[in-house]
């Protein structure tokens, strides 16, 4: 079938502002949007710039705005998209070229919440494994699924207006450790998330939950972090 | 060559610089918004019922009505709590919107300063009226 694509192109070397360009490619309805973008790049216009790596919804490289909503180009099927398919880079981050954005502010928020296991200082060389019950593991199961694609953070209206907000992805990854029974860094993380640009900037728009390609209940995780910070303050 | 650390430092959100004193102010304001929201729901409904629906509604509200109502210290307390909660709830909402949309530090400080100034004036005026109202000065 014919697939019509409207791609928002931007090359800072030549363009003063982004503009749409139309392409038509042949594709099977069961092919993914990423396949069509590759057809454009490989057969029609090799200057098209986009990120992808695994192409199977795990690496989180190809989040983009398709027909107005954040998706992974490698997960969405052509048959599910209304044509012409409009593709834009994710919002709230500066565009470097076409669908490639500067992810550093996103990762700065992620790093700010210390997304690694923090254990007791005295325990440099643990003598045995850190045992966890199934129940304890289930407490943060949902937030382990994050692939850092930035679909949630760049769907967030608060992040659009204020890039210094840590963003939903960072809070999800803080949640993953705060609710981990083996982790002892909860206080440090909550202290960070209780600041002005932390979790309390969230106004529960739910855009993040809708955007997450992994189905993480992002807004719920953020609310849990807010609540645990409050309980700690009593 | 720039290391990952350099890039991190360069892009690190200002709010998380080590020099900034951690505080749980935002936690408490968030909690206040929830609690005050629930209380306001009831206070506002009662206020609307008493002032606008009972009898001939807002038409009957005048000096005598207020004098009669505020003879009861319970109603004074009710009105003052409504004033404080509604004012702080609204102002905190505006503060958050200002933090979102006004990016320049100078303008942000100026707008927030004006807002807090107005809040203080309204709070003092309202409190003065509630506390100092004297039915005896009837004209």
Please describe what this structure looks like.
The complex is a heterodimer of chains A (234) and B (139). Chain A has 234 residues and is an alpha+beta fold. Chain A folds into two domains: 2-101, Ubiquitin-like (UB roll); 104-231, Fumarate Reductase Iron-sulfur Protein, Chain B, domain 2. Chain A is 30% helix and 14% strand. Chain A is built from eight helices and seven strands; from the N terminus they run E-E-H-E-E-E-E-E-H-H-H-H-H-H-H. A five-stranded mixed beta sheet of chain A has the order 2-1-5-3-4, with helices on one face. A two-stranded antiparallel ribbon of chain A has the order 6-7. Chain A is elongated, with a radius of gyration of 20 Å. Chain B is mostly helical and 139 residues long. Helix content of chain B is 73%, strand content 0%. Chain B contains five helices and no strands. Chain B starts with a helix and ends in a 7-residue tail after the last helix. Chain A binds chain B through residues 104-105, 107-109, 111-112, 158, 161-162, 164, 166, 191-192, 194-198, 200-201, 203, 226, 229-230, 233, and chain B through 7-8, 10-16, 20, 22-31, 96, 99-101, 103.
């Amino acid at each position: 079938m014919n697939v019509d694509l409207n791609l928002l192109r931007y090359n800072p070397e030549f363009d003063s502002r982004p503009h749409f360009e139309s392409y038509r490619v042949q594709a099977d309805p069961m092919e993914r949007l990423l396949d069509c973008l590759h057809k454009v790049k490989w057969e029609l216009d090799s200057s098209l710039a986009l990120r992808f790596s695994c192409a199977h919804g795990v690496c989180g490289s190809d989040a983009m705005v398709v027909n107005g909503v954040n998706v992974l180009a490698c997960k969405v099927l052509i048959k599910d998209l209304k044509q012409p398919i409009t593709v834009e880079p994710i919002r709230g981050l500066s565009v470097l070229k076409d669908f490639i954005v500067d992810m550093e502010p996103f990762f700065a928020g992620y790093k700010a919440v210390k997304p690694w296991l923090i254990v007791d200082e005295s325990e440099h060389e643990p003598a045995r494994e850190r045992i966890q019950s199934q129940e304890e593991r289930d407490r943060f199961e949902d937030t382990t699924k994050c692939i850092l694609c930035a679909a949630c953070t760049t769907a967030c209206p608060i992040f659009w207006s204020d890039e210094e907000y840590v963003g939903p992805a960072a809070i999800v990854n803080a949640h993953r450790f705060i609710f981990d029974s083996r982790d002892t860094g909860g206080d440090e993380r909550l202290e960070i998330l209780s600041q002005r640009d932390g979790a309390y900037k969230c106004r529960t728009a739910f855009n993040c939950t809708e955007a997450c390609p992994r189905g993480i209940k992002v807004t719920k995780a953020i609310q849990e972090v807010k609540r645990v910070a409050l309980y700690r303050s009593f | 060559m720039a290391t990952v650390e350099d890039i991190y430092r360069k892009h690190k959100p200002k709010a998380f610089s080590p020099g900034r004193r951690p505080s749980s102010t935002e936690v408490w304001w968030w909690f206040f918004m929830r609690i005050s929201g629930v209380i306001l729901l009831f206070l506002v409904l009662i206020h609307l019922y008493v002032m606008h629906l009972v009898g001939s509604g807002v038409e009957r509200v005048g000096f005598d009505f207020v004098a009669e109502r505020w003879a009861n210290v319970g109603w004074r307390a009710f009105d003052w709590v409504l004033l404080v909660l509604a004012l702080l709830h609204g102002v905190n909402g505006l503060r958050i919107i200002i933090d979102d949309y006004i990016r320049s530090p100078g303008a942000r400080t100026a707008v927030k300063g004006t807002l807090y100034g107005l809040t203080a004036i309204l709070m003092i005026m309202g409190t003065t009226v509630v506390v100092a109202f004297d039915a005896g000065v009837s004209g």
